[in-house]
Amino acid sequence: MSRGKVLRGLVTVMGYVCVAIGLFHVLLGNAAIPGEGSAGPTIDSLGRFFGAAFAGYGLAWLWAARQSPIPATAVRWLAGVFLLGAIGRVLSLAVHGWPHWFQVALAVVELVLAPLLLLLAGAEERAGAEERAEAEEGTESEKKKEEARAREAGA
Questions:
Q1: d(CA 18, CA 88)
Q2: How many Å is the Cα radius of gyration of the chain?
């Protein structure tokens, strides 16, 4: 499987998963946060607001997935935001201690997936540039062959 196909798959999955998680938080509020079902109305309001923002973040991933080629700059920005979220989790761990195990698992996924997305970000753009270069080489080669034939025919 090519890097471009892996990138397209990951970007698409990121989009759908982030939209689903965001909507889950909007609909369930505190109940969507493992171990925090009774955190109170302020945290519930905050969680629902951030859920909507996360759903929007997922829509940005889906927008990128629908482009051809997938824009490397968009993937880098979106992956950078994802990595910043993971760093926030690590900072929270350092300041407040270990969270619910599910939050730790999410941090691991984020710390692995963000760099992978950054690594793959330009895969489709690079592949497209290589295809265009090969096509131009082929066109140049064909032009030279035609010129040689024309010279032979005129000689």
A1: 17
A2: 24
Q: How far is CA 117 from CA 4, 21, 39, in A?
A: 11, 19, 34
Q: Contact at 8 Å (CB) between 116 and 3?
A: no
Q: Is 39 helix (H, G, I), strand (E, B) or coil?
A: coil
Residues 6+ apart with CB under 8 A from 118: 75, 76, 79, 80, 83
Q: Which of 72, 70, 68 is nearest to 121 (CA)?
A: 72
Q: Would the pTM of this model clear 0.85, i.e. be above it?
A: no
Q: Which residues, in sequence order, are CB contacts of 142 under 8 Å at separation 6+? A: none
Query: Tens digit of pLDDT for each residue in 68-112?
Result: 999 999 999 999 999 999 999 999 999 999 999 999 999 999 999
Handedness of CA 63, 69, 73, 78 (dihedral sign): positive
In the block, residue with structure tokens 């889950």 = 24
